[in-house]
Amino acid sequence: MSTEFLFRADSYLQQTTAQVIGLTEDGGIILDRTVFYPTGGGQPGDQGNMTLSNGQIVPIVNTVYAPDRSQIAHKLADDTACPAAGDSVSVQINWDLRYKRMRVHTALHLLTTVLPYPVTGGAIGDGEGRLDFDIPDAGMDKDEIVHELARRIGLEAEVTEQWITDDELLAKPEMIKTMSVKPPMGSGRVRLIHIAGLDLQPCGGTHVRNTREIGTVLVTNIEKKGKQNRRVRIALASQEPEQ
Q1: Most buried residue, 72, 80, 92, 158, by CB count within 10 Å?
Q2: What gap in Å lies between CA 181 and CA 52, rounded to an integer?
Q3: pLDDT band for position 78 (cuts 50, 70, 90)
């Protein structure tokens, strides 16, 4: 039985009821549905709480894919009570943490439009993130990058999702910007994130609904990581939600 990935249809869902359908060998709790995003694509797994059928609340410290990647495992803190298969539970994400990651993730999509070069790596943190580009020294002006990011954020572009088949994506390899992270393929269809008028690329992560929610973004550093590899680090100027 697969886990229903509720966050893919609505990144703003913060809680849900669910049923335990299994346990991983290392104690991860597999649910039939979840709002928790699992570690992947440079984005950390969600944290939050699980309320057991007896009312006890236990912390979820990480979320990962189970060995069967159609399932998601919720890792509980050590020495906490563990539900059994068949139990009914409810789960709630740490929303402040998730929303910062959503804002950063969407900002990184915009960064790939400011710097339209192959992406060789990336990571999303809690209010900050980075992308590595296959790019020469020329043209890497920090102030210009900040200005262009701000301009795109200020367009208040809608961020939506759409789906295409695996074969349609393979026929359009130019849509794949990341060299090190493969698009979430294998199920027969691929999720695309569309930033109206700005960007369209495959991605399984969580994003804000409108670029205005990102807020002000700073470029904190540009590092040389090899002959042509450049690492661009960004951070949210405000950690408070922009909704």
Answers
A1: 72
A2: 36
A3: confident
Distance of CA 165 to the CA centre of its chain: 21
Q: Are 81 and 52 in contact (CB under 8 A)?
A: yes
The SS3 of residue 3 is coil
Question: Which DSSP helix (H) or strand (E) runs through 134?
Answer: strand 128-134
Whole-number pLDDT of residue 164:
78
State residue 185's pLDDT score: 54
pTM of the complete model:
0.90
> 16 forms bridges with which residues in the sheet?
91
Q: Could you give the domains of the chain?
A: 4-93 (2.40.30.130), 98-236 (3.30.980.10)
pLDDT mean across residues, the chain: 89
CA separation for the pair 193, 163 (Å, rounded): 9
- Amino acid letter for position 51: T
Q: Determine the Cα–Cα distance for residues 117 and 119; give it in Å rounded to an integer.
A: 6
